[in-house]
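User: Hey, my collaborator sent me this sequence without any context and asked if I could get a structure. I don't really work with proteins. Can you help?
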Amino acid sequence: MANYCISDHFPVLFTRTLKTKQVKGCHEHIKYRSFKHFNEEKIREDLLNSIGQTEEPEKGLCMFFDILNKILNKHASVKEERVKYDKQPEWLHVTNEIKKSMFKRDELHKKKMFNDYKIQRNKTVSMIRKSKKNFYNRSILENKMPKFLWKNLKCISNADSNTANDIVIPHCIGNSD
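Assistant: No problem. I've predicted the 3D structure and written it out in structure-token form, which is a compact way to encode the shape of the chain:
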């Protein structure tokens, strides 16, 4: 028989597991080197002019890294950019046409060309649906591993989010139009 009473002799204990969840919709900031104006000859020239000699290998390596970082900062500077999603869905990497279409759609909307925007929007949605359908059909046919299949099914069903996106679930797996 258990004794239940309010007393200092029976301490009350509990544990609680806290899961930290990243807030959706917040933008991330990424840092990268911009190779937009990269010139290999200029970097090679700067490296040859800057490298010195030393007898100590550790000191020489530190000097080399310092010189290399200075030259890279000069020719390929570090930039920071705000991104909404730190990784894109796999079906979007299949082709660059979808990204171009999305950009064109957004530009038409900014210019307030609404009739052209609606046409471009419908084309973009059609391309996205077709790309998703082809990607998931191909991934199901190529990968027979249950872990991979369940991962894709979870992605298709939007199990992580409360909102449903337009996702086409193929009727026939063998058909990859």
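In plain terms: The first strand starts at residue 28 and ends at 33. You can pass these tokens on to your collaborator as they are.
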